[in-house]
Structure formats: structure tokens, C-alpha cells
Write a structure and sequence with these properties.
It is a single chain. The chain is an all-alpha fold and 379 residues long. It has two domains: 250 residues, no CATH class; 74 residues. Strand 1 and strand 2 form a beta hairpin. It is globular and about 55 Å long.
Length: 379
């Protein structure tokens, strides 16, 4: 995997395969009968973060096998399965951020959002893009200014999430006011769901897809379209947990299974018919991935309850951001030494490489999080 070469399974960037785990952020919870607040970390949020970080690595390890074999082969189908069952990772990270940033009574001024969160994302993007650009230049033996500047601007394939998250962060002061009114929260979910999910899903249907896309282009409700939907959805599912009708949970679990099946079968059928890998069903804003993401979120929510994060879980959760930022480098490094899922049957090779990359990244992350400045601005 070289920088600038985005594999079919990884594209398109805005709704494709990559994600940035957020740093652990405390959740404010009101003490019963008390006007003040105390900070507590909910275990299920950190568990979701860790699980999603592992799923991101699986997405990119499986993409190596996804592009290395013909769609009709057993190896390709195995890679498709591993990739499809991991697609919930990006939506989950957005939903986690929604739980945290849209917590009741939390208010962040535009100045704070830009000076603290967006500035940090900007610095992080430049630093890691520079590092991957330098690695590409060494690997490709190309030091021309045009090549370097283009790669620095584009970023490595997984860094797309940093500017995408910055765009959602810019809306946080608005979103916080929207979710302060339950009726507006539900309205926003419906409005953004139609613009963000219905259109990408129907776009895959001949004839109908072009008309639905044209309609949205004419109306242009783009302010909250896209990933802000997941911000609001995460907040809604977290805050309305005990108010949801009883049928919602079993329906969401069934929906999660159906979502995975649709993603696997749809990707397989479309790719086999085209004779090459087609990742349309992999989009993070397609209906199958949305259903899976909601089911996964509620499963972790149910299992975790109101339990508080343990020190060990908090430590592991802190590793998720550097794991995300580093793991493509290790996948590429292994491929340079011809260590790829193809060495063994893909069904076995993908999980073995996945475990190896996770362990390497975790070991280095445990060190990086202890380095001043690095742990504040780069990871």
C-alpha cells in the first residue's frame, strides 16, 4: 500500500473505510438532586472506542486481500466478509463523539471549538501527512517538489477523517442547541437521515438513484447532511436509552444482522457482475451500515449499562488514536516484505496479520502516550 494509492475497498474517502478514534473524553453526568456536575467515564463508551479501533485495522487489512484476488474467488469472498462485518467502525466513532460533545448542559463556544479541537486536528493532519509523505518519497525514490506537495496536501488514505471531523466539529455549537430540544433532535435525525442515508442507498438503484440525487442537489440541505447525522444519532440513543420502546432493541439486533448480510451479499453480487471489486455497499452512509452501527451501539450500551471505566480500560482506550494513525504504516511495511493475507488462505491470513498489526501498534502507542507534546498534539 503506498500513499496516494487508495484501494477500491477504501474509496470514496468521505463515506468509505477510514476513521479516527477520539481521545478519551469524560462524560458529564448530573448528580441526583444536585446542581453541580461530576465527571465520569462510562465503560461502554471506552469499550466501543477500543472495539471500533480494532475494526478499523480489520477494514484495512482485509482491503489488501480484497484487491489482490478476483471477486469470484474464495479468497476475495473471505476478505469481503471480514471487511463487511467491520464497517460500523466509522459511524461508531462519530456516535461516540455525539455522546460526548452533545451531552446535556454542555456548551462549547465557536472560539473554543476552533482554537482547541479544530486547531489540534489541523496540526495532527500536517504532521502525519508529512511523515507519510516522507515515507512515500523514500519508497518511491521521488523527491520532486510537486510530488511532495501533492502528497502532503492529499494525506495518506486514512487521514481523510481529520478534515472530515473538523467539519463536524465546526457545527458543534449549533448541534448542541438543536439537541437541547427533544423535538428538534428527532426532526434533525429525520432530515439528516433522508439527505445522508436515503440518497447514497438509492443511488445504487438504476434510474431511481439518479433522480434521488438530483432532487437533493436541487434542495441542497447540506448543512447537517453526512456525518453530523451520526453525531445526533449517538446522542439520541444514549440519552433516550430508557425511553426507547421495548421492540427497538430486538429490532436493532435483527437489523444489524440484516445490515451485515446486505453489505456482504450486495458487495459480492455487484463485484462479481462487474468483474472487479466495487465498494458501493461499503459506504458508511448506506442503509446496511447504518443498521449494523445502531445494533452494535445498543449492544454495547446494554452490556455496559452505567458502569464506570476501569483504569486499565482507560489506558487501552487512550491507545486507540495512535493505533489508528500508525496502523497503515505497519500494513504497508509488512506488504513490502511480502507478508500479506495471500501467504495463507485469506480466511486465516487476514486475522493473523490483523492481530500482529494491532499488537505492534499497541506496544508503540503505550510509549507515545507518555511523551509530552506528542500526546497533546500528535496523538
Amino acid at each position: 500500500m503506498s500513499g496516494g494509492r487508495v484501494k477500491p475497498g477504501d474509496a470514496p474517502r468521505r463515506d468509505g473505510t477510514d476513521v479516527l478514534p477520539r481521545r478519551a473524553i469524560s462524560v458529564e453526568k448530573s448528580s441526583p438532586g444536585v446542581g453541580s456536575h461530576h465527571r465520569a467515564r462510562l465503560a461502554y463508551v471506552d469499550r466501543l472506542r477500543v472495539a471500533a479501533a480494532a475494526a478499523v485495522v480489520m477494514v484495512h487489512v482485509s482491503s489488501v486481500g480484497w484487491t489482490a484476488a478476483a471477486p469470484a474467488s474464495a479468497d476475495w469472498q473471505a476478505a469481503n466478509i471480514y471487511g463487511s462485518v467491520s464497517r460500523w467502525c466509522v459511524p461508531i466513532f462519530f456516535m461516540i463523539s455525539g455522546v460526548l460533545f452533545l451531552a446535556p448542559n454542555r456548551e462549547d463556544s465557536p472560539r473554543k471549538i476552533w482554537n482547541h479541537y479544530i486547531l489540534r486536528l489541523f496540526v495532527m493532519y500536517l504532521a502525519w501527512s508529512f511523515a507519510y509523505t516522507l515515507a512515500d518519497a523514500v519508497a518511491e525514490h521521488n523527491w520532486s517538489p510537486a510530488y511532495l506537495l501533492q502528497h502532503l496536501w492529499n494525506g495518506y488514505y486514512h487521514l481523510w477523517y481529520l478534515p472530515a471531523m473538523a467539519g463536524v466539529y465546526a457545527l458543534i455549537p449549533l448541534l448542541q442547541r438543536i439537541v437541547s430540544v427533544p423535538a428538534l433532535t428527532r426532526y434533525a435525525l429525520i432530515l439528516t437521515g433522508v439527505a445522508s442515508i436515503l440518497v447514497p442507498t438509492t443511488a445504487m438503484i438504476p434510474i431511481l438513484g439518479s433522480h434521488s440525487t438530483d432532487l437533493v442537489d436541487r434542495v441542497a440541505p447540506f448543512l447537517l447532511a453526512g456525518f453530523p447525522f451520526y453525531f445526533i444519532l449517538g446522542h439520541f440513543l444514549h440519552e433516550s436509552d430508557k425511553e426507547l420502546p421495548r421492540w427497538v432493541r430486538p429490532a436493532s439486533y435483527v437489523g444489524a444482522i440484516l445490515g451485515v448480510v446486505v453489505t456482504i451479499a450486495g458487495t459480492s453480487a455487484l463485484s462479481v457482475s462487474k468483474g472487479e471489486g466495487v465498494g458501493s455497499f461499503y459506504g458508511y452512509l448506506t442503509l446496511g451500515v447504518v443498521l449494523t452501527s445502531v445494533g452494535v451501539f445498543l449492544i454495547f450500551r446494554d452490556l455496559g449499562g452505567e458502569a464506570i471505566t476501569s483504569p486499565r480500560l482507560a489506558t487501552i482506550s487512550r491507545w486507540t488514536l495512535p493505533i489508528y494513525l500508525m496502523h497503515p504504516a505497519f500494513i504497508r511495511l509488512l506488504s513490502e516484505f511480502d507478508v500479506s493475507p495471500g501467504l495463507l488462505p485469506t480466511a486465516i491470513g487476514i486475522p493473523l496479520i490483523w492481530v500482529g498489526v494491532l499488537l505492534l501498534c499497541a506496544l508503540i502507542s503505550a510509549v507515545l502516550v507518555r511523551i509530552p507534546i506528542v500526546n497533546s498534539w500528535l496523538i
